[in-house]
UniProtKB/TrEMBL annotation:
It comes from the Bacteria. InterPro entries: Knr4/Smi1-like_dom, Knr4/Smi1-like_sf. It holds the Pfam family SUKH_6. SMART domains: SMI1_KNR4 (SM00860). This is SMI1/KNR4 family protein. Residues 27-143 form the Knr4/Smi1-like domain. The lineage of its organism: Bacteria, Bacillati, Actinomycetota, Actinomycetes, Actinomycetales.
């Protein structure tokens, strides 16, 4: 993900106002990212860039998983969707990157790079039935960053 100076500045501002900045929200090491990828599969490039340069984030819902959260959620995702013969939702079609407060997963569609919601309380058998919430990972992240900054400004 290539970022302009103004985009980097916006992300830095959003991360600086995000709650809990002193604990789990930090950039991830190449070593830790590679360990995840060696154990499971490559992380989509834009999400990987964010993890390495900034870390996961929770400006507003949905949140973007930290590597620690992804390491817990990814195996559960595989267990829930890999063996379902009636569904085309699997690690071949989507990659989980975050979550919503209701327990739903936020995923990247591997074929199009669009961001979709995989609901936790509704059985969905096709990626075509998933709700698109952003046209790209970058659109999602910057939309969340702007909302987080706006929310922080309203609180002040």
């Amino acid at each position: 993900m290539e970022l302009t100076k103004s985009e980097i500045k916006l992300l830095r501002k959003a991360y600086s106002v995000m709650a809990d900045t002193h604990s789990k929200y930090h950039s991830e090491s190449e070593k830790d990212i590679s360990e995840f990828e060696n154990k499971f599969e490559p992380i989509p490039s834009e999400y990987r860039y964010l993890l390495k340069e900034f870390g996961g984030c929770h400006f507003v819902d949905p949140w973007i998983f930290t590597l620690e959260e992804l390491s817990c959620e990814y195996p559960a995702f595989i267990a829930n969707y890999t063996d379902d013969e009636e569904s085309n939702i699997s690690n071949n079609t989507v990659f989980p990157i975050g979550g919503l407060g209701d327990g739903s997963l936020v995923c990247i569609l591997k074929e199009t790079d669009k961001i979709v919601v995989l609901p936790h309380d509704v059985y969905v058998t096709s990626v075509d039935d998933l709700e698109i919430i952003a046209e790209s990972f970058k659109e999602l992240v910057f939309g969340l960053a702007e909302q987080g900054i706006e929310l922080d400004n309203q609180i002040k």
